[in-house]
Design goal:
727 residues, alpha+beta, 4-alpha-glucanotransferase activity, six-stranded antiparallel sheet, 25 helices, three-stranded antiparallel sheet
Length: 727
Amino acid sequence: MDVDDVAQTNTVKSVKQETLHWSLAQTRRSDEDLGVGEFLDLKLLVDWAVNSGFHLVQLLPINDTLVHGMWWDSYPYSSLSVFALHPLYLRVQALSDAIPVDVKDVDYEAALSTKLSIARKVFNLEKEKVLTSSSFQQFLSENEGGAVSLKEAAVPAPRLISSQELEFFRPHIEIKSDRQTGEVFEVLDAEGPYRSTREQLFSIGQMLRIRKGPLKGYLCRVVRIFQNDVTVKLDSTENCYRLVSLPIVGLVVCTMTDFSMCAVQADLLSVPANRGDNLSGAPTREGDSTNLDAAIESLLNVEKQMRLAGDVAGTRKAVIDIVELCYKAGAWKTLNDQIVLLSKRRGQLKQAITAMVQKAMDYIDLTPDIDTRVELIKTLSSVSAGKIYVEIERARLIKRLANIKEEQGKIDEAADLMQEVAVETFGSMAKTEKIAFILEQVRLCLDRQDYVRAQILSRKISTRVFDADTSKEKKKPKEGDNIVQDAPADIPSLLELKRIYYELMIRYYLHNNDYLEICRCYKAIYDIPAIKEDPTKWIPILRKICWYLVLAPHDPMQSSLLNATLEDKNLSEIPNFRLLLKQLVTMEVIQWTALWEFSKHEFENEKNLLGGALGAKAAEDLKLRIIEHNILVVSKYYSRVTIKRLADLLCLSLQEAEKHLSDMVNSKSLTAKIDRPMGVVSFRVVQDCNGTLNSWATNLEQLLDLVEKSCHQIHKETMIHKAVLKA
């Protein structure tokens, strides 16, 4: 052994009585070697390591180095040889005693060729003896089910064919012309056309990977299938989606079928194609975690290769298959862990995360218990947080989690969860789904009696959106516009959302006793076509409109709604309410006692109809509205009236009449002045000097306009009559 063959990169140093690790770059060659250093020289290395104080000698893993079947496989310093023990390092002299003694030093290629030929001869001579030996039988029993050949264990990565390599392999390619179509195909040497009894696994455009011959590891594409003949074409530009091995002349077929439907194992999963243990036999029980972990690890390798290659379809398919495997195995905790792992992988594609989240969402309703369901939803929600391309999915997840919290009686937690999501900023979410989500936020706030937040959230919805004509909306977005997703099937229609919106607003306005706004909400519900077409629906709503109009304080909006409701033809179906509204628009004093006797029965029925919404306070408000109506009538007919006379007309005491009059003046519903010493109320509007002057100027302008028009008409008639007389 030459001393120069040992290159020591680090030496042992003692620093404060601490021994540092040694690392060596070691090459070994002895006088007995044939051409290069050999395996048996490792014994010398171990002896040297023991004497030098080493405790560990690490050997590289065994792997197949004859990948290409070309001359460069003999080179011991190729990129693959550093990961494997090359056959070049065999010591053929130790294989058998019948070894030629005239072998001289050779170069790498000659040494490889010679040693392989000698090894084959030795195998033919010794195979029966070795195969029947007790040591070999013991080796088989100890490694049953785990021993594989180097060829079988090798999994070379698929490669695309470069233009230079394509020209290099031209001698191995046969040019063939189809007699029927006239198309020219490139058929691989000694590989095709390939005959298959399972032609359903082939389709035009499939990607294949060659597993033997000079083109081993390269990609090709199926271009023609005629009966059982499959013709392929070398492809130097296309990338593969996913490779699944077939036991057909050493090919690997790229197919888009599910792993659970494949009859063989994926070749890229680092599992040989002929070893069995198909992914179709994936674990279906939680306890069979070993096989599941192995299958997931293999799929993660596929996902990594597809992701690093920028293959969107392949990466998407890999992550979906991982999710499906976990679901079919019932491994919900593993599913959550894999979702988090896949989402955090470096350079993960947006399309893959979107597909993974959408696929996992399909399994939420299939979870065995509520705790598992909540955990899965929380995992998906955390994964999709902060990612704009899955913002819609996250909103749907939050909504489902809020529904679960609400079913558990945790209204506050459900409301807080829903308020975290601002769906009004989601450009790709359907309009109806946005409205439904905001309405759910409003409903939860009302349930927790948070009326301030309920009002703020309700203002995010414009009432004009319910009146939009859906037929005029653009169906196909222009290039560059955001693609709006379709709303889920459980989202109500726009008109149904309109009804839900106004019902929620009625709940809010009932809290504030805002009768006019409640009336407007019922009026909007009444205008929905589906409501107007069904008398059983619009009659109760029209009754509520009438009652809340009566209860609303007098103002221009209330007066306008009152007159518009009176013009409704459907009001004739409920004559009592028509008469009630007619009394309010008639400028006559209404006797409260007579009105109460007339409408008391209807009022009591309406209390039951509204679930007690019209209670004792509503009765007091009704009496107050009648008093206000009577005061307005008096102000129309009187410019001055005594308080005593006003109290008699209102059927009230002097103090009550004065109080109600003062309240109306303060609310600016009426203009009046009370002279208490004289006991007189003046309803005349006292104008200042500017107001009086402006009024006089306006009246004078109107007078001059009238005089001008009259003169014009007189002159016109005079000219007409003169023309007739002359004729």
